[in-house]
Amino acid sequence: MGFLIQGICTVVETILRFLPIPCRTGLIKIGNPDKNAPVFLTGNYHLTVIRVRRALKGQNAFLLVANSRGVNVWCAAAGGHFSNHDVISALKTSGIENLVDHREVVLPQLAACGIEAKVVLQRTGWRVVWGPVYAKDIPAFLENRKEKSDRMRKVRFSLSHRLEMAVAWAFPMSVIFSLVVLLVRSQSVVPLIILVWALSFLLFSLFPLFLPLLQREAPKPKSDKFKFGQLIFLLILLLMGLSGLVIFSFLTSLFSLSFILFWGIIHTIAVFILGGDLPGSTPLLISAIREEKSYRVVLDHERCRGASFCKMVCPHNCFDLDEHSRKASFVREHKCIRCGACLVQCPFDALCFTDGKEKEISPDFIRKHKLNLIGKRDITG
Length: 381
Hints:
Alpha-Beta Plaits; 3 domains; five-stranded mixed beta sheet; three-stranded antiparallel beta sheet; 15 helices; globular
């Protein structure tokens, strides 16, 4: 019965993915944990808690659910909804200090863009260990004595992830479109729903084919390359859809100016909603509408002391640790999506954002000013 309920919750919360869905905060015992059992902490987005509990099944551990306002860990931490205060509060009020002898808590790696491990240690005495990006890797993470492989640190956009995003976009779009069209052309509601779902699944399923067009080679100040690629991408989608629409109308003898005009407008709106900021719907690319897209991360080798926090928290494995100097190297800059995790965690402030000229965004600014709902920081302030 519990498995069935979890399955239903997963389906419902996937189609409503863009909405905050909170669950109760507090301490959860997994199995029969003793005083040496590992302590995990995550946000109170219900779908995340379900997946973490599923990953911990068969383990003996404690799970702390902190208040992330019902938002997933990455978005909540980046947007200031899952903060140092929430982690500190969970550690101090849950009673976990009386249940274990150690002071080590495992946090999701994707929370590193908003939660400062140094502050948590200073205020609670608990050392933060950054866990794997995906909950399913937790058993391997524990087997490996909390050491992460490069694969565990890296975000991916697999077919299953892409299909989840397709559903998350298709459901609200089909509801909103249907309510509008119902008032003027009720007989078109069912075909409209089919079109929206088909377009959404097609777009996200074929995302790897579009990736080279959307991907930036390197963040260059005032470069229009990314905008140009985005425009070509949208034009391709429009032409493919309109061509298919014309062919379909001829084959079904439905061809008319009103038919082409109506469905052409619907298709164009759907394409611009789905494809307009497709990069922002993926973990692989930076949002096309961010104000700081012309900024890049720079590493000050003089300040670097080789603490390797940047390598631990980077979701794209952009950093390596030099074997000779024992300092970090920003070797895969072209993969950087500027999430800011490396800036937030570096204890020596060896990283910052810059536009390559006079403008620079300090680590302290990133720690204080979080992203808003469309992924922007007030970098002009």
